[in-house]
């Protein structure tokens, strides 16, 4: 039956990513995917081990897509311009692909997958933006965590409709990215 449905790991991963964007990563199930392909659940298990593998594959796909968007956004830029382009690309991806973005935030055990290059690329891109600010460890890690938590928190609240105020969320986003640039440029020295 799998041959008739044209099942491959890649098609399953793409279908799971699209389903995640429609219903949320937590609602992606083998049964829901099987229905999309018009096959029985068992047909999937000759291609993937379990639901966790599907979620890992969606997380890797989404991380790679996000990395590509970030790399394109920051190419040829530095300082506040690079930070703003990075932030905008991050937010745009998360809002356009909510299920995939949520998959990138799943706690994954590195022992469950072998492709860590995509996650290393994410760190490289973040640090590329941070180079302008000349931060050394542990400040570099602390500042990168500030960016990630600020972006993730804002996007989470915005996605949930939590900014119920007449001021446009995009206007606040612009001010926040400007504020982050000034903070990074004037990062307090470690004690």
UniProtKB/TrEMBL annotation:
UniProt GO MF annotations: DNA binding
Record keywords: DNA-binding, Transcription, Transcription regulation
SUPFAM superfamilies, per database record: Homeodomain-like (SSF46689), Tetracyclin repressor-like, C-terminal domain (SSF48498)
Residues within the DNA-binding region(s): 29-48
Domain called HTH tetR-type: residue spans: 6-66
Protein name, UniProt field: TetR family transcriptional regulator
Organism listed in the record: Kitasatospora cineracea
